[in-house]
Protein 1
Amino acid sequence: MRVFICGFGTVGQGFAEVLARRMDFLEERYGCPILVTGAMDSKTYVLDRNGLDPLDLVATKQRTGRVGEDEYSDSTKVLDQAAYDILVEVSPTDIKTGGAGLRNITHALENRKDVITVNKGPLALKFNELITLARRNKCKFRFEGSVGGAMPIINLCRENLRGEKIESIRGIFNGTCNFILSKMDKGQPFDQVLKEAQQMGYAETDPTNDIEGYDSACKVAILANSVFGRNVTFDDVKITGITGITEEAIALAASRNMVIRLIGEVSETKLEVGPRLVPRGHPLSISGTLNTAQIISDLAGPITVSGRGAGRTETASAILSDLISIMDERTE
Amino acid sequence: MRVFICGFGTVGQGFAEVLARRMDFLEERYGCPILVTGAMDSKTYVLDRNGLDPLDLVATKQRTGRVGEDEYSDSTKVLDQAAYDILVEVSPTDIKTGGAGLRNITHALENRKDVITVNKGPLALKFNELITLARRNKCKFRFEGSVGGAMPIINLCRENLRGEKIESIRGIFNGTCNFILSKMDKGQPFDQVLKEAQQMGYAETDPTNDIEGYDSACKVAILANSVFGRNVTFDDVKITGITGITEEAIALAASRNMVIRLIGEVSETKLEVGPRLVPRGHPLSISGTLNTAQIISDLAGPITVSGRGAGRTETASAILSDLISIMDERTE
């Protein structure tokens, strides 16, 4: 089985490292090695039909800032030259156009390759086109890590809970916002907490995607399409961010034994992200950077899951679980 | 596909009702009906190769206290007369000997039938014998609902997280104890809360299995065997119940911003059930009758799940999910 890793930032490197850690396990399970036959970052690429050492790729990237020596102008031409069965697409997300990720995923599916991605842009913008293309070409297309990182949610709903009628999912889908709101619970004002989050690496230099709720909205759109079978995009989500939340609002909530959390809500009819009052002690009142989701279904009632929503190894673990699912299906 | 329902108390009836609710879904998914060709309670049985109406069975049981007109002396002889592919074993649990459940499961597996059970006794006492028998006879053997009811845990660990090295699982596996301890948090003494729990139907007339930690210990043993691949029985679990917890201990914990919860712990080396101090706000500090578990693994980090640990429909939903898994594997 041959894997091409497209995108070699934190998640791509994390996946390469996880693959190296699990190489023996995978080879024993499937009786054949998993070969990384290609990798690409935003400018360069490297190909080897005999397989590249994942840890060498990480070392090269960290030493030189480039995963390969050769530069490319069209990523799909690189994919055409590569010998691979599964594309792992983890390039930087573009939630306006889908960007390179959308082109790469589309190209791989058109060429009947299986795809694993955590790239939210393509999934939040063109989910139904991609899933239709995958079905038509009988490709496996998986994206567990795109919502909630290591928190199990998409495959849990689609596989473990496939006998349930899932009525709604409400959750905290952005660790940065939750970190900020948890700190504000203790009386710190928004601007100060944001600066602290940036210093600690929990928030990006341009925090817009997180604090305006766009990142959560992508995840809500992905859940609507993948779990509820809806046909929505990012633009259909009603979004309110957390920039307008004042110390007074937090204090008022606290006086009623409540906290304010940025909650994404999705059902057959709902598609929203916004600050919500949550009673203390409720599963969605958690503090810190974890992601959490409450799934309400007709037979099981409420099921709550939580886990690390981001992180090099944690996101890679979701990709690994998708890889194992695809391998299991292929080797049945 | 033909199902025999063995045990027709709350869970058996709940499963019959759930099956009736999902009959159309299942028939559409698999292109064939699911027939209930037999059912049995502790004294009586009914068989029909053409299929019984699940809701009629429930109505008969509720009206007469018996699921069938004919009485039996040896349940395995009834199974021998029945035409079935999958045994759903939900008879009352016996954690001393495994009881009728162990005999029925063993008999079905020996006759190359698939088995779904939530019966903790057989799983906590003879897990490795049963799983070995199932493997030898190429039978599917599933038991998601035996730990945590509708809370996803066993299949989550064994399937979704199969690329992880699971290091430990700690959880609240008994809703009755958690209800009692949550009430004690508010200052009520043990005896008074126990009486209240009995009046509300949360605790049985003989509450020994719950409050002495035996029920939790069964679940810990099942997790040790099924998730950690250990070979343990109920008797190997180090158990302390909650009967010795005083109001003073609860108050002392509260003064340190902690609560006391009955926690089951399992890892490669650990196998314990006992009262533990848990910081307020920790995932295992939850109040009420929910079950919850924190799974620690090497890549994903901590993943927490919670759900209803008991209940007619909730437990049946776990059986349904096992049934769908078996059907999916059979029809691949």
Protein 2
Amino acid sequence: MKDFFKVMDMEQVMALRARYRALPDEAVPVMETLDRVLAEEIVSDIDLPDFRRTTMDGYAVRAGATFGASEGSPAFLSVKGSVRMGEVPDFAVGAGEAARISTGGMLPEGADAVVMIEHTESLDETAIEVYKSVAPGQHVVEVGEDFSRGEIVLNRGRRIRPQEMGVMSALGREMVQVYRRPVVGIISTGDEVIPIDQAPRQGQIRDINTYSLAGWVRRAGAVPLTFGIMPDRPEALLETCGKALAASDMVMISGGSSVGTRDYTIEVLDALPRSQVMVHGISISPGKPTILAETDGKPFWGLPGHVVSAMVVFAVIVRPFIDRLSGLSEDLEAVRAVPARLTRNLPSAQGRVDYVRVRLSAENGQLHAEPILGKSGLIHTMVRADGLVRIDRDVEGLEKGEAVQVIPL
Amino acid sequence: MKDFFKVMDMEQVMALRARYRALPDEAVPVMETLDRVLAEEIVSDIDLPDFRRTTMDGYAVRAGATFGASEGSPAFLSVKGSVRMGEVPDFAVGAGEAARISTGGMLPEGADAVVMIEHTESLDETAIEVYKSVAPGQHVVEVGEDFSRGEIVLNRGRRIRPQEMGVMSALGREMVQVYRRPVVGIISTGDEVIPIDQAPRQGQIRDINTYSLAGWVRRAGAVPLTFGIMPDRPEALLETCGKALAASDMVMISGGSSVGTRDYTIEVLDALPRSQVMVHGISISPGKPTILAETDGKPFWGLPGHVVSAMVVFAVIVRPFIDRLSGLSEDLEAVRAVPARLTRNLPSAQGRVDYVRVRLSAENGQLHAEPILGKSGLIHTMVRADGLVRIDRDVEGLEKGEAVQVIPL
């Protein structure tokens, strides 16, 4: 048997991420930052809140005045006035006094707690009974309790969620520096592959990878740029690769990476200027015939033509490279993974990492991962799958009931 | 103590979803369908594949000709020709014959299996030795093995992932019917709330909810439409509510829904034409002072002003209503939830459902949920949180080590 591939371990391939840096940053309105990656450290320039505010509707009081109050023996307080929302109260609250206050209002001078309106009874405009005692600070947010001036609120490299949009708004950040989204060029190859608006003749198949990979690129927070289907001829492929490289931060060709009569990808990648093939084969399944070159400083992938292999390689290998270009600070795969238990034994070949498609079901708060078996050329296995389970290189297989980590698909 | 709210159980509120239907559908290019909800049943009008294709590079053979072949005793086959990709082979393979074939190629008449190239040795242009036997059908995808003609491929109401984009492409679906995305109007209220480009004076706070809720609406696959900050005056609010209703499929006002001196939301919702308050208070925490009206056939929410309460109510209550308008067929909350174990005891009040913010960490393949305690007015608790844990109504609390379901944030 010949050594058809210069096969590399997955860990060696993943280590190549270190060659790449986050793309330049750009300023974006905070309203448009969902799922973008923060390119600056957000430091609070204010105390948040910068006044003592209440979290309840009720009466601002001195807590001491309520001590011992109960339904049977209410405390009796005189109402000094009402706090107007958004304004500094122009009066103070003394012992035996209270001020009407609504959620979010500023505590008057002298008050240190708020009694919920439900625990009071208004006797008339100027007097209330309080049925429950409050502790100092109760129902009050102190100055700087959320964030204090000078505090680091959000770190660079963080994926922005709705709550991060909220906190940046609280700090008055109309514009935020985020990393530019990677543009990923997508090229399909194969003389048997036809555009989706054509009817396949016998022996032909419509282009699946352009669309599913574009979906994956979007899901990874990047921007797909498609270049259609190239015939398996080096000259045509070379020209398209050059165009794709010029317009993208990373390029993926799918198809043509098996050892076959029409395997021109390596040839083309070698022929591109400032190009070096770094990986020719990865010891994973599916996805072994994956190529990674570096061309003009950019990652250039030759993905398997099999639709399932291409998607699996994208999910477990290409995506972490996109995360790197996106400026994401952590490897999020572990966070994305979901724990589950296998529903049956899974054999595996040693010497390679296996990724098995699974379907998830929940029972008594436990997720079960049911392996989906099927040839890697069959897209229906991916449609049925909810995730991938990894079987490590030096493991002979996994047993029924074993705890596994599921990478969502 | 007065009955300040006409409080409803969460289940009663969720049952009100049945009043709403999916929005009308629209045709969208398959390339733009990621995360959209399918509004038609996708049925295969072809066999996929519609020819027998190989999943490997190698030689198409009659399996019988390889039986008993081994390294020591190879089978000897004559090479009849090469299969051209995308074309119907113009020759047949007989007993003792083989045809060169690349991944994705069509099997010639007579062949029923493929020998991987790694298990052969080419003797000259016309003869090979085969070192390993193959079974009939090995490395071959049969006609219709992925999808057969007339088969339901994807159901209506399904969220479209990259693999679904791929399968629709395979079937030649350039345009796909998806449900229109709900437009969700967002109004902030509160005299203490100021636009984010202004510097707050004492007693004022910048508008957080407009931005965090817009982020949540996007995350739910809907389109946010913001109307800024309304002062707590019924006339102004009424006018803006009317505008928001006309332009949206659902409206959310945040703030002003507590029982307080400035509680005009109910008043305004009552004053709108064809409007009925359905829910005034929900027995959950945080989020009790939530209002749901139906106005002109559309859900109209009064969310708490507290930033955390507003987000929690959105995540656990409003979002399922958006899913309904989006045409999503299943309640996906269970699927979204991730199993974990609590790191400490969590007390809870009976008679209401509690949602506790938690931070997740992984250890030995097990996720641990660490409760984040903090006042619901503090946004930093949401920034630190990875998810929410639900404590059911009639439960006194949860114990350290207990299995919980975490709703991701």
